[in-house]
């Protein structure tokens, strides 16, 4: 039998006792860093919308949204199918929204751009912070499936959780004290790429 080579590294069981836990710990923190990066820094920017004309459907009467952060769910159409949507009165104008005098509105699709669940208006930011881990001082839109959060004051931008893309906007017009949706932003994610 040849004698052990002193230059060749030799691992014994005691080495494995620290190497394996170190690998597991390093892997966990690597995964955590990657996940934090994805959650916080890979969200698509909201750009000026490109509209595709659609049917003209009632979203809400102005007097149904008498103050800031009032909202109303309504139904629009996508490819002859019903589409859940929401119109929100905001404290400031945003890209793709509509201002009527001093009142500012934004209409968004409620289809989550991650995997298509229906997002909800989260009107209690404190409860929202617990449920969605997204901290803000105003209402936002949250997806109950994987706790994605979208920011109305950034025109529907995905701000937390797995969604990367903003909620598509719906074009609004006002006539006779009523807000109408008249088209969709394209590409209409997640149904279009
Ligand atoms: S489907 Fe909405 S966060 Fe996953």
TrEMBL record:
It comes from the Bacteria. Pfam families: Rieske (PF00355). The chain crosses the membrane at residues 16-34. Keywords: 2Fe-2S, Iron, Iron-sulfur, Membrane, Metal-binding, Oxidoreductase, Transmembrane, Transmembrane helix. Residues 57-181 form the Rieske domain. Gene3D superfamilies: Rieske [2Fe-2S] iron-sulphur domain. It is an enzyme of class 1 (oxidoreductase). Its EC number is 1.20.9.1. PROSITE patterns: RIESKE (PS51296). The keyword Iron-sulfur applies. GO terms for molecular function: 2 iron, 2 sulfur cluster binding; arsenate reductase (azurin) activity; metal ion binding. InterPro entries: Rieske_2Fe-2S, Rieske_2Fe-2S_sf. This is Arsenite oxidase subunit AioB. It comes from Meiothermus luteus.
